[in-house]
Amino acid sequence: MSNYNDTSFWFNTMDHKPTVRPSLPGNIDADVAIIGAGYTGLWTAYYLKEQDPALNVVVLEADIAGYGASGRNGGWVAGYIAGLDKYVAPLPMEKRRECCRILFENVDNIGSRLEAEGIDAHFHKGGVLYAAARYPEQEAMQRKMLAQLYEAGHTEEDCRWLNARELAEKVRLRNGLGAVYKSHCATVNPARMARGLAAAVEKKGVRIYEKTRVTSFRSGEVTTEHGVVRAPVVVPALEGYSSSVGGFGRYIIPVQSLIVATEPLSESLWKEIGLEGREAFCDGSRMVSYGQKSADGRMIFGARGGYVYGGKPRSHFSLANDEFRVREELMYDLFPMLRGVKITHGWGGSLGMPRNFAPHAIFDLEAGIATAGGYGGQGVGPSHLFGRTLADMILGRETELTRMPWVFNNASHHQALRKWEPEPFRWLTSKTIVKAFTWEENLYLKIKGSAFSKSVANNVSNALSRLMR
Ligand SMILES: Cc1cc2nc3c(=O)[nH]c(=O)nc-3n(C[C@H](O)[C@H](O)[C@H](O)COP(=O)(O)OP(=O)(O)OC[C@H]3O[C@@H](n4cnc5c(N)ncnc54)[C@H](O)[C@@H]3O)c2cc1C
Fold this sequence. Notes:
12 helices, about 475 residues, FAD/NAD(P)-binding domain, 3 domains, globular, D-Amino Acid Oxidase, Chain A, domain 2, alpha/beta, single chain, 8-stranded mixed beta sheet
């Protein structure tokens, strides 16, 4: 692929067409070898060099920086992600509040770093209209989720319930009964952030080798198609590509996620829709439809993931594929006023899903292997926090970040993570879950099923949700 405009809509908004950096010239030595130039790898490199400018850090990227999920995502920078509840819930309230503070500050820290580095990634902190409920059972579920957020250390300033009228003042979506407004969320243009960050990292003295696919790695050594890098610390930052190299594929599997973008919408259409504050939004469905208003006034709308048998990451998508029609229909269902506007872009990417549905930052001191990920489709914000955390761990610094409950210092990934079930169970489970969730939603929103069928579908979906935890 020579024209990266096909990668995602975001690549079309770059000031310049991305130029490809040179590949690894042959065998070299380094202090830290990072595999993958997405946000995780790049932020780790950034904070390593900031704290220790003399460190020799290299980043090895199979394609170009930002080619993975980091240049393709929906651009939400969320302050708190659901998977973290697992770590936070058992802690005393004081510690829970500290975790929340770290996560909330992380959003602002990204904004200030982008500003300090002169990266114009259209960072905008407008909060998020979260999990908009569209039928009473969904409202009950979302109100319960809000209660859990308060339990997890959030305050009313961090998040609060908007009733149907308050929600409609902010966004007019079909059947909106209410939503949680969370203030700690921003939106960005993901590819501008990834490419800008790569340039900032390079300015700090990190060498990024593009078109340099890693074929294997172990303690002290990374083998690529162009040579070997010997380094006492190796950082696989592969997330949705974890199954393609090394032994992480049983722990993090790739899930595909797809997005569509409309043409820039007229002022009058935006008046009908709302989102005046450029808030991010998502509905309350179990499979989550979400989006943002881009800086140039397009509706960016993502929905539903997909797992393919055997778990291979996917990087090529075409708007001509039928799978995009599903996303378009979900978008029209939420925003009927968008029917008839032109869908100009459709793309997708692979994100990493861990078996325990919670992200992690791990440093195996003995093996010299540090890694972070498992963000499950919510990694734009956390990859910054976790990159900083990995840098602290690699430099042997004990900080408030390394004391967070999602950090596994001095542990291997075998100890810290759970393995996925082998095939065909993984594939069958994912198919069953998607079918049950779609069935439940259709009964409530489309077919208007009987009370009995709704209750059966709701109970089956609840049971499957519990099974996934
Ligand atoms: C369609 C989509 C929408 C999303 N929306 C959101 C959102 O709105 N908000 C949010 O918080 N998160 C979202 N996410 C998730 C988020 O994008 C990711 O969590 C985040 O970008 C992960 O960054 P990363 O650096 O860990 O992984 P990646 O960005 O995937 O980076 C991994 C890198 O490794 C490279 N690579 C792969 N194999 C090799 C190899 N063998 N050798 C060398 N390099 C290799 C890849 O090319 C890639 O550049 C979304 C993801 C997708 C796919």
